[in-house]
Amino acid sequence: MSSKEAGERMEIRMQKGAKPLAGVGEVVAELQRQLPTQQSKWIEQLRQSPGKFAELEVAVHHAFQQMADQVMAGLLAEVTKPADWAQDAKKK
After folding, report:
1. What is the pTM of this model?
2. What does the angle CA 41 – CA 36 – CA 15 come to, to the nearest 5 degrees?
C-alpha cells in the first residue's frame, strides 16, 4: 500500500502500479466474486486428498488473513477519501 503526504489525497493501492482503491465496498465486492471459485477449489482439494486436511486448513486461514488485509486497505481508502480526509485533518 502507498500513500501521498498529509494534506493531499491519500491513495491506497493493493499492489504497486494498481489503481487506487475507492473504498471498502469495492474490496468486499471483489472478494464476493472470488470466494465461490476458491471454495470450489478447497472442496476439490479435500475430496482428492482428505489426508491433507491440516494443510488445507492452514491454507484457508492464510487466504482469510489476506482477505482481512484487503478489507482493512478498503477501510483505510474509505476514510481517506479527499473530502473526508480534508475535513478530518482540519479538525485536528
Report:
1. 0.72
2. 90
